[in-house]
Amino acid sequence: MTVFTNDARQFKFDVLTEIARQAYAGDLKEENVQGWARNLVSLNGPRYRCCVYKEREILRQRVRLSMGKMANDAAEYKPEQIVQVIDAACDGCTIRKIAVTDNCRKCMTKACQAACHFGAMTMGTNRAQIDYEKCKECGACARACPYNAIVVTERPCYAHCPVQAISWDENGIARIDETKCINCGQCELSCPFGAVEDVSWIVPVIEMLKSGYPCYAVVAPSIQGQFENASLGQIKKAIEALGFKKCLEVAAGADAVAYEEAQELKKHMEAGKPMTTSCCTAFVNMLEMHFPEQYAENKSTLVTPMMAIARKLKKQYPHHGVVFIGPCVAKKQEAMMKGSKVDYVLTFEEVYAMMIANDISPVNMEETGDDRPSNYGRNFAASGGVAAAVNEVLREEGHAPVNAIMANGGFECKQQLTLIKNGKFTANILEGMVCPGGCIGGPAVIASPATVKGRMVRENMKNKERTVLDAIAEDSYSEVDLEVRKV
Fold this sequence. Notes:
Number of strands: 15
Structural class: alpha/beta
Strand order of the largest sheet: 10-9-12-13
Distance between the termini: 43 Å
Number of helices: 20
Helix content: 40-55%
Strand content: 5-15%
Shape: globular
């Protein structure tokens, strides 16, 4: 089944679907999936690499990641490093950052040569040439060229990493610095060759469901609109058909978190300190790893909405499993943290592969849904939604709205956190979303953010009168500890 126009994502999806089929059939062996993968990359199939054998090696590593293993057989197993590089796929990028194009006229001014302070630029027979042994990749030659004949090309994975966790080894293969990586998946989303992928837990989830162990699915608000024209109720019903006891909306946890963050924001304002939100795991990782002082001083103490609903379910049903389904790969890392009440995390890609393996189509399901979070909780899915929910709580309580800044994407998050660090932040609250557009722009979405947003607006019209206070009055979290990372 064709789901993506991006061939790299489609290959990944095809592998996930086959793994799901074999896991449900009880015949999951790596060699079986490898045999199927060899058929997927046939001798007369499309060519993206030098040969069919290299493409099969790439698929072999994809299979390992999809089965919860390290892509590289010889690599040390590091379960909390969710985002990994498929070595065999990471050789299609331009190795040289600075390059001279055919636009070079070999002009008389030789501005590029004059601008280079390292003696790396000389004039060849037909155009300027770069001695890469001397080149420091500073870009001065490119800025000086009057014809724009010298180009600066950053690798997409490096260019999209907001924390500079990407580098490359002596062979030009990308490497991830685990001391910097926030597992946001932006490198994964941007790689044109699909050389960066996330580890999958699809196999243990299927095994848990097959065992009959009762398990709840909790779905991120951004799941609305992901599966063609299926309504949220139909999507939840399709997920329950996979064997889950019940499918619940994380938006209910988002309502609870918004309420508590509004109360905490009042204290921050009294103390004269801005507050940062807690819903985006990658943003929290950025805070903790790269801005530790701001993590201690400014971050909301609330858990993410995912963890809020998981804690509530584990308190009510201690012998049940909890599986989060969303567009985020950082949530897989969060689920492994000490004290987590989430057993496993699946992405939208992975749960859709499970549906196809079971011939389940969301658009053909009857609707279900007896939980009713507010639209403000559901709108945590998009940039600006968290700050809007917190302001809505303040409005419902009779308080004046506060000044909020929405950091849309990892680079804006880093910029605003730097302003907080330097005492130049101008608002009361900073909403941080590392994925541009919010969760609807996450690395594992199926539909485009614009499409999802439109579908959400239309479907949620019937729920527009419901307030945050109404939602938490009916679905109370008063008995649940919502403070961050408590065991």
